[in-house]
Amino acid sequence: MNFARVFSGNNPDNIKKAAELLREGGVVAFPTETVYGLGADAFNSKAVCRVFEIKKRPSFDPLIVHVCDKDSVQKLWKQVPPLAKQLMDTFWPGPLTLVLPKTDLVPDVVTSGLDTVAVRMPKHPVALKLIELLANPIAAPSANLFGYTSPTSASHVKEDLGASVDAVLDGGDCEVGVESTVVKIEKDGLVLLRPGGITKEQLEKIAPVKIFSGQASSPESPGLIESHYAPWTPFFVLDKKFEIFLKGAEKMVQAYQIQKGRPPRMGFLAFGPKADMPLFESVEVLSAKEDLYEAASTLFQAIRKLDKMNLDMIIAESVPEKGIGLAIMDRLKRASAGKTIEGVLC
Ligand code: TXA
Ligand code: MG
Asked: Ligand 1 centroid vs 269 CA: distance in angstroms?
């Protein structure tokens, strides 16, 4: 490789080089509108295996296959039911991943041996051009180490994966900031496997939506493990109003001080602006106007920022579980593996 490992996606020559790398069986990180993906040629099993190795991803967790046009699904799915067509027409290109029975062309390593494959058409122009130039679909999980916070900028990818990828295409900060919504298409409607950029309310305008209620890591939804998207710093979600938490917080800090001989160094991940925050060493505000879309787009970046500060803990404020707020809360709950601050310190 004789070009910079991170190179600009604004330059068409760089996208061409990245496509060549993929054609030779390389692994390239690339921008999408949701988060950065770690891509390999979906029809090259050996290259796809490298994606699992680089990410340290367990082999039971299947990848999403990315296409640059709607026709490409013909090669990937056995059949394209009318409901799938309608969803593709409404939400593609965009943050919606559809799961349907796969053809024999899709290697088993991509789907972790499942007989279904997850497909989406991303919206980012660099991603679309890369897939088009490769002339094959790209299998790609998020470009972070397995279990860690997802990357929403090229520098996040570099920090996480360093020299292990063949190249990183820089397409700027991701617009949506949380991953795509993953739905399984069934005869009588949709099963929401992972909330994401397309909201449950948007899907419900098209078909009935059931929220997946099976076991995490089950064969139906292998990637839904309880702890995910997690920073290294102990991470807790506030399950009460911030003002109520503050009333009891002094006591909590005193208890910590007695136990450890010093007050805790705490970071706060706030949905909106907060006035009085002396307890916290650092506060990250997701959206000054408490806009859920803006909060989604800044979420992972804010978590990563706090995670770099060597804090004793990060406390995250809950957001309303409506619209894209459902995806934000899903990520917060998984990042905390279900731990609330009350459960640990009070
Ligand atoms: O926005 C996104 O979806 C990003 C960008 C890069 O496209 N990708 C992403 O991939 O988030 P990943 O691998 O981090 O998450 C994919 C999710 C996992 O929860 C996985 O288990 C699920 O999709 N999945 C993939 N194939 C599946 C299948 N056949 N059946 C059920 N779930 C599947
Ligand atoms: Mg991921």
From this structure: 26
Amino acid letter for position 139: A
Structure tokens at 278: 């002396």
217 close to 225: Cβ distance less than 8 angstroms: yes
Per residue in 277-333, pLDDT (tens digit) is 888 999 999 999 999 999 999 999 999 999 999 999 999 999 999 999 999 999 999
Q: Whose C-alpha lies nearest to ligand 1, atom 6?
A: 37
Rounded to two decimals, the pTM is 0.94
State pLDDT tens for residues 144-200: 999 899 999 999 999 999 889 999 999 999 999 999 999 999 988 999 999 999 999
Q: What percentage of the chain has pLDDT greater than the value 90?
A: 80
Enter the tokens of residue 33: 């509108």
What does the alpha-carbon distance between residue 316 and residue 285 come to, in Å, rounded to a whole number? Answer: 10
Nearest alpha carbon to residue 127 among 17, 16, 14, 32: 32
* Residue 182 CB less than 6 A away from ligand 1: yes
Q: Is 221 in the pocket of ligand 1 (CB under 6 A)?
A: yes
Q: How far is the CA of 277 from the centre of ligand 2 (A)?
A: 32
Ligand 2 center to 57 CA (angstroms): 9
Q: Which atom of ligand 1 is nearest to the CA of 176?
A: 1
- Please name which of 85, 66, 79, 82 lies closest in space to residue 116, comparing C-alpha atoms: 79
Residue nearest atom 20 in ligand 1 by C-alpha distance: 223
Mutate to test the pocket of ligand 1, among 54, 63, 76, 168 (most ligand atoms within 8 A of CB): 63
Three-class secondary structure of residue 90 per DSSP: helix
